[in-house]
Structures are given as structure tokens and as C-alpha cells.
Write a structure and sequence with these properties.
Layout: E1 4-7, H1 17-29, H2 37-44, H3 49-60, H4 66-83, H5 92-101, E2 105-109, H6 114-123, E3 132-134, H7 147-156, E4 163-167, H8 170-178, E5 182-185, E6 201-202, H9 206-215
Parallel strand pairs: 1-2, 1-4, 2-3, 4-5, 5-6
């Protein structure tokens, strides 16, 4: 019986990949590096910020620390989120509200920092819908490690067999799968090329996922 829905954030509930790209674009511009948005997002969407920064340092032989790059990017994102909310994904708000009203326990499990997430949740008045929020700050090992999802399950005292994780990337879906969860993948335009062979179900959008969910009750 499914009782708990564990949602990823970026690219699953919030269409924030463009904002992440804008922040990285500003950081990398200081080093004379430019990407187009499609190429950048296909390579880095869903990857932890620090892991992305480490890849950039190696790839472009930057004379900078990955931690410094990641910190700068996170600061820029938090500032942008405060001043201009990124849009929600299609059916995002409706799906959350309907699932909450139907009695499902909702959790948010994200690779973003709390400073990045909270302004958006508050701006859309979504925070109260979640019984548990696990951010990158809360774990030692971010996605694709299963720790974020395991921490959420432990906090909620819910067995993995009763939960479904909703993810848009291979990185996140592997994290959820390794935590023992059923995984529903909803790839977006940036992640369609990623490997989702390990997931249990694949959907076009959140509405399609929720209609399937209701059939499982």
C-alpha cells in the first residue's frame, strides 16, 4: 500500500534548471567559459553542485577550488530565488495539494541547499504540505547516494515498501532505488537522454503520475 510520496525538487516540482544554468553561467564567465543551456543542462542537470564544480575544475583545468565555485553558485541561486521565483513544473502545485488532501504523506528530498529551497517553498506556500524536507545540508552523502531518501524514511518512520519517489534525473532515481523505494521517473527536456532503465515507472508529467497513483489505492 502506498502511503508516502517523496518528491525531488529541481526539475520535478520546480522548473529551476534555467535558473541554475544562469547562476553557473555567471560563475564560469569569470573564467572565460561559456556553455549553451541545452548542453550544460544535459551534462549537469541532477548532479550535486559540488560534483558539478569538481567536473568543471577538471574539464577546464581551472585554478580555483570546486568548493569555492559551488559556494558562489549556491549564493547566486539563493539571491535569485528571493527576487524572482522560478515557475513550477506543469501540474506541480495541483498534484501536491490533491495528494495532501487525499491523505498521502509528502516528503521533499532534494540535492539543493535549504537556502535555495526555502524561498521557493515560501513563495508558493508549499512548505506546510511536506511532513519532511531533506536538503543537501542535512546529509553527508548527497544523491546519487541513498542517504537522503533513507533519512526521509527514517524521519517519517515509513518502510520503503510504502513509498514512491518521484524524480526527473538518473542521479536522483538511483538514489531512491538504492533506498528501496518504488521510483517514478518524469524526465524533462533536459534529462530525456539520461538512463532510466532502473526505474519502476515512467510518466510524461505529474498529472499522469497522479492518475496512475489513484489507481493503486
Amino acid at each position: 500500500m502506498i502511503t508516502t510520496l517523496l518528491f525531488d525538487f529541481d526539475g520535478t516540482l520546480v522548473d529551476s534548471e534555467a535558473v541554475h544554468f544562469q547562476c553557473w553561467d555567471r560563475v564560469l564567465a569569470d573564467y572565460g567559459i561559456r556553455y549553451d543551456q541545452t548542453t550544460f543542462c544535459q551534462r549537469y542537470a541532477g548532479r550535486p553542485t559540488l560534483a558539478s564544480a569538481e567536473d568543471m575544475v577538471r574539464r577546464h583545468q581551472l585554478q580555483a577550488s570546486a568548493k569555492a565555485l559551488a559556494s558562489r553558485k549556491n549564493t547566486l541561486f539563493a539571491e535569485l530565488a528571493q527576487s524572482s521565483l522560478p515557475p513550477l513544473m506543469a501540474h506541480g502545485q495541483t498534484t501536491l495539494q490533491q495528494a495532501h488532501q487525499a491523505g498521502f504523506t509528502l516528503a521533499l528530498v532534494t540535492g539543493s541547499t535549504r537556502d535555495e529551497v526555502e524561498p521557493i517553498l515560501q513563495g508558493y506556500q508549499l512548505a506546510s504540505l511536506f511532513s519532511c524536507i531533506v536538503c543537501k545540508d542535512d546529509v553527508r552523502n548527497p544523491k546519487p547516494h541513498p542517504e537522503p531518501y533513507l533519512q526521509a524514511l527514517a524521519h517519517l518512520s515509513v518502510p520503503a515498501a510504502q513509498g514512491v519517489a518521484i524524480e526527473d534525473t538518473s542521479t536522483g532515481s538511483r538514489s531512491a532505488k538504492d533506498a528501496g523505494l518504488t521510483v517514478a521517473a518524469i524526465p524533462n527536456c533536459h534529462t530525456l537522454v539520461q538512463d532510466f532503465s532502473h526505474v519502476d515507472r515512467r510518466f510524461d508529467d505529474l498529472q499522469q503520475f497522479y492518475l496512475w497513483l489513484l489507481q493503486q489505492k
